[in-house]
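Hi U.,

Before I forget, here's the chain from the pilot set. I'm dumping it here mostly so it's searchable later in email.
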Amino acid sequence: MEIKELEKLKLKKKSAWEKYKDDTSKVFKFCENYKKFLDFAKTERRAFYYIYDEAKKNGFTDFNEGKDKLIFKNRNKSIAIAKIGKKPLKYGIKLIVSHIDAPRLDLKQNPLFEEANVGLLRTHYYGGIKKYHWVSIPLSFFGTFIKENGEVLEIIIGEDENDPVFTITDLLPHLARKVQGEKKLSEALPAEKLVVTFGGIPFFDDEEDKEVKDAIKLNILKILNEKYNLIEEDFLSAEVEIVPSFKAKDVGIDRSFVGAYGQDDRVCAYTSLRAILDMEGNEYTTVVLFADKEEIGSDGNTGCKARFLEYIVANILKIAEPGNANEFYLKEVLFNSKAISADVNGALDPVFQEVHEPQNAAIIGNGVCVTKFTGHGGKYSANDAHAEYMGYIRNLFNKNGIIWQTGELGKVDEGGGGTVAKFLAEYGMDIIDCGVVLLGMHSPFEISSKVDVYETYLAYKCFLEK
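Structure:
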């Protein structure tokens, strides 16, 4: 064989932008709407509301009211939308699962105190963060309060241009040499020092004309009561999330990237949502599930360990095939299903390439990433898709012009990570990880390539339709 023919045998990696070199308008238009989603859906509850509203606008109804386009809700923190297909359910469903929670700071149940003339809120971080990322940046307050009488009160502060924002102060470099500078990076900022600056004006008792104990805390409570009818005890039955205040932005002189908080994993949530809403027919029954709690192990009754999927499929059986609504048939449906764990991977970092094995690392801008296995070390605690299913995905994407790549999360002994795939694999279904690659993953300002976002949408839509 001549050299030119031999060169054709090589695996070729190419930029996904080549596909759009003559017209990038579809890519950029899609990502404008994606950025709006990110700005709205800064918590899992807000993502839930967005998904529910979009599904309703597109003709989906709550499952107990519908016949073929169905919505399943789980405590305002996890949601699924489904469309009944032509094939009997015994042939399985097409399933895409993403997660809508993201690393953040949660308020402790009794958070409010004051020190040195500053009113502060104590936090407990959620998910895998670098604690130093969260100091000296503007922060917003997203609270869901359940009052003693059962009233639900949602409070958002920091997102409107006229709102105040909050922050966590860092130690000035002049005094940080011993307290921070001589420590490991992971130890320089203890978690208990992630306290949010919340106020600074004391309450003055004009009648008594004397010093008031905890005067700043008291004034904060006065403001919260006057504006929102809150008392301090209301924090005990509340979920308050502290997240970055800044909006999603174009990054790069060519506007090729999106920079935003929460792209892990709301980028896969948005693209899979658009995929089922824009789908042009489906042979198989399709389900797109948006889960909570992935960042802390998928535990809890809104995470993927909670068997919400069983509840969904059982109700689909009652609607579509009531004669087969039994446990044995339910297990057969799940066993024969094909699924995508829609989650992000880490892109080859141009600055820290030493933590990657470049030959097998995903590259930002090279299309949607298929991750055959996750886990860490010797593939411990991983889903590892079989070659047959990898072949199915490869054939599907190649036939339909999807620009895709494969990737691993770092060198073998450098780190690793997990997704929901291993929990769904327990049902016997075929499942593989597939999603967007990010730079700065788990930071308050993650970076995605717009072309990868759009190719991921096309990949999910193709998977659901075919």
